[in-house]
Fold this sequence. Notes:
Two copies of one chain form a homodimer. Chain A is α+β, with helices and mostly antiparallel strands. Helices cover 48% and strands 12% of the residues of chain A. Chain A starts with 13 loop residues before the first helix and ends in a 10-residue tail after the last helix.
Amino acid sequence: MRTLEHPEKERFSLDAVLAALADPVRRRIVAQLAGGHDDQACIAFDLPVTRSTSTHHFRVLREAGVIDQRYRGTAILNTLRRADLDERFPGLLQAVIDAHAATLTGGREGRAAPAG
Amino acid sequence: MRTLEHPEKERFSLDAVLAALADPVRRRIVAQLAGGHDDQACIAFDLPVTRSTSTHHFRVLREAGVIDQRYRGTAILNTLRRADLDERFPGLLQAVIDAHAATLTGGREGRAAPAG
């Protein structure tokens, strides 16, 4: 069985976690995982990007320690590492999830609505 | 008097704020502002980078809405836009400041201690 590399929680980098969460597609993945069950397959995410870009985004999240990924057959199942993140960076994940939700309901996100 | 451009709080981009905070030098600036008084001059920050890199980091923070910068004579004074950030993204700034402090006391940050 192939396995995927994950950082131990003691080795999480705040730089990497914040950079991972600084992308709207990756926050969408995180928000779906936070609002749903564990072990969601990559194909269960309706993302506005190509499949290879999607794979890239999942990998960035995994390598930062934000999600756990494991194979089941040919599918990859994704789970939010909420407990690990909350232990290392208390309050951070939820603050980002809340802020992401607010940008969706507020309807204004910088990239989507450039000035001018 | 020259003035510097700042985004209105309604136009803050969560992408830009998180990307701005994903750098350890910029978090150091934010932490110093959070723990001190308003209107701290750029030269009051002892940063491990060149002056032009330092200027770049302050600009990234300003353009994301994290800090306010204004001229006083030839100096630039910096103030954390804590109220604006707290209004737009409740809890986010403090969670990042706390996480940054924890990485300093914990002594492990991914970039500083590469695996191997």
